[in-house]
Amino acid sequence: MTQTIIDKHASTPWNLPDYASARVHFDWPQARATLAGLPGGGLNIAHEAVDRHVAQGHGERVAIRWLGKSGERIDYSYARLSADIARFACVLERLGIRQGDCIAVLAGRVPALYIAALGALKAGVVFCPLFSAFGPEPIQTRLEKSGARLLVTTPQLYTRKVAALLPQLPRLEHVLTVGDDVEGTYHLEALLEQGEPDFPTAATAPDAPALLHFTSGTTGAPKGALHVHEAVVAHAYSGRAVLDLRAGDVYWCTADPGWVTGISYGLIAPLVNGVTMVVDEAEFDAARWYQILEEQRVNVWYTAPTAIRMLMKIGATAIAGRDLSALRLMASVGEPLNPEGVIWGNNTFGKPFHDTWWQTETGAIMVANYGCQPVRPGSMGCPLPGIEAAVVRRRREGGLEFLGVGEEGELALRAGWPSMFRTYLHEPERYAACFVDGWYLSGDLVSRDADGYYWFVGRSDDVIKTSGHLIGPFEVESVLMEHPAVAEAGVIGKPDPFAGETIKAFVALKPGYAGDDALRKTLIGHARLRLGPAVAPRELEFVANLPRNRSGKIMRRLLRARELGLPEGDLSTLESSDGA
C-alpha cells in the first residue's frame, strides 16, 4: 500500500478545504471574478498585484521585504511599490518604449528587478527575465531573439557580460544600470526620481503579451515562451489553492527570478494574494535560510528539491533550537521531489513538503499535492481544479490513445487554461507541434493511480529501454537516495548490444562517506534488492556534484552526453554557466 502523510498543521481550514468538491464546482470565470480588472474590461498583472491593494486601503501592508546579503533590510509597502513601478513605467514612456515592446532584466535578487518587472507590465510592455549567471553568449541569444529595446542590469554585469555585445544588438537601444553610474548607460535611480508616481496603467486586454520566458530543451536553440496578462488568473488561484496564500501572510519563494518560478510564484502570485514576500539577495546557506524562516516568521515556504537535498545532506541538527512554528505549508518545485525528501521534511519540520508540477509553458502549477489531501511521497499529486489531465500515447496513424490506471504514457493537459503559453516567439511550427487534438503534450512520462494521483516516470527523452523494460530514471534515483550515504543521484541509459541499454548511476555522497569499491557494491546491491536486477544500475560512478540547471533539475542529458562523448547541446541554463 502506498505510504501517505496527512498534514495536520493548519489551525484553520485550508483555502482549498475539499479537493473533490472543488473539482466539480470550480470554473475559470469564477476565478477571474475574484480579480478587480481594469475599467472597460481589460486586465493587467501589475494592477492586480499592486495597485488594487492600494485602492482597497491596504497600501501600508508590506509587499516586499528585501534582505541584503550584507545584512540590510528594506521594506516596500504596497503604496511605495505602486509609486515606484509607476515611475518606472513613466521612464519607459520617456525613453520611447511603447506598449507591446519588450524589455529585459539581467540582475540578481535586487529590488530594481521587481520594480522593473511590474513597471513594464503596468506600461503594457513585455517583460523578459534573464539569469544573472548567464555568460555573454546566452545573453546575446536571448536579447536578439526577444528583440528587447531596453535592458536593466547592474554595473558589474554590464561591464563583464553586456558591453562587448552591443555592436551585435542593434535593437537594444537603452541600458539602465542599478546603483553606480556607468558610461554609456542610464542611471536607473536618477531616472526614477524624475518619474511620476501616478502613471496610468495601460489598458491591456487579457490576451495582450506580458511575459517572455526562455526555456531550453534537450535539442535546439532556447525557446521563447510568450504568456499574456490573463495568466494572472491562474497565478492568483493556484497561489490560494496550492500554496494556501492569504492576505497578510509572510511568504518565501527561494527561486531565482531569472526562472519562471521566480516570476510566477516569486512575484505575481504572492502579491496578487496580498502577502508580504521575502526576497533574499544571498545564495543558499543553510544557517541563513533557517534564520530567515525563524526571524521573518515565514508562513509559506516554496523551494526546490535541490535545496531540500542540500538541507538533508547537512542534517537536522542545523534546525535544533529554531522556532519555526509559524510555518503552515512547505512546497517544492523544479523537478520531482524524491520520497525521502517528503518524509525527511515531515520528520524534521513536523509537516511534509507538498510537491508541485508545472512547466515554463504551462505558466502556473498544473498538478500538486494539496494541504487538504494526504501526501503520497514521490507523487506529483492531483490536477489543479480547472485543469483536465490525462495519460496518453501518440498513435502512429495520428491522434492520441488515452491510457488507464497504472499505464505509463505522456502527461497531456486539455488546452485553454489562462496561463498557457500562447506561442514560441518566431517559431509557430515548434509551438504547433506541442499540441494534438486540443491537448498540450508535456514531454513528461507519468502514470496515474486509482485515486487520481500522478507519478513521474521521466522525461520522454530520459526514459531508459533495457531488456524489454521501460525504466524511468527517477525511480532508480529515488531508491539510491534511500541509502544514508547518498546525497544525490543521476541515472542514464548506455547503449548495449544485447540489452538495448544498461543503466549507469552517478552518485554524490554525503559528508563522511568514502566513494570506494565497497560502497559502490553496497549501493548496487541495495538497488538490486529494491528494484530487481533488470532495473538496478550495472555501473555506478561517484562524483562530487551532479550537473544541474538554475532551476535545480539534474541535467541527465548532459551526464549522458559526457559519458558517451556526444555534443552537449545548449548549456545556457547550466548552474555553473557563468563563464566570467
Account of the 3D structure:
The protein is an alpha/beta fold and 580 residues long. The chain has two domains: 19-448, Rossmann fold, CATH 3.40.50; 462-564, GMP Synthetase, Chain A, domain 3 (2-Layer Sandwich), CATH 3.30.300. The protein has 17 helices and 28 strands. Helix 5 links the parallel strand 3 (102-106) and strand 4. The longest helix is centred in the first third of the chain and has 17 residues, at 78-94. It is globular and about 70 Å long. It starts with 18 loop residues before the first helix and ends in a 16-residue tail after the last helix.
Salient structural properties:
GMP Synthetase, Chain A, domain 3, alpha/beta, 17 helices
Helix count equals 17
Q: What kind of sheet is the major sheet?
A: 15 strands, mixed
Domain count = 2
Mean pLDDT: 91
How does the helix and strand content classify structurally? alpha/beta
Residues in β-strands, percent: 15-25%
Helicity, as a percent range: 25-40%
CATH topology of the largest domain: Rossmann fold
Low-confidence stretches: 576-580
Rounded to the nearest angstrom, the radius of gyration is 23 Å
Question: What would the principal axes of the Cα set say about the shape?
Answer: globular
Q: How many angstroms separate the termini?
A: 51 Å
Oligomer: single chain
Which CATH class of the largest domain is shown? Alpha Beta
User: What's the CATH H-level homologous superfamily of the largest domain?
Assistant: ANL, N-terminal domain
CATH architecture of the largest domain: 3-Layer(aba) Sandwich
In total, how many beta strands? 28
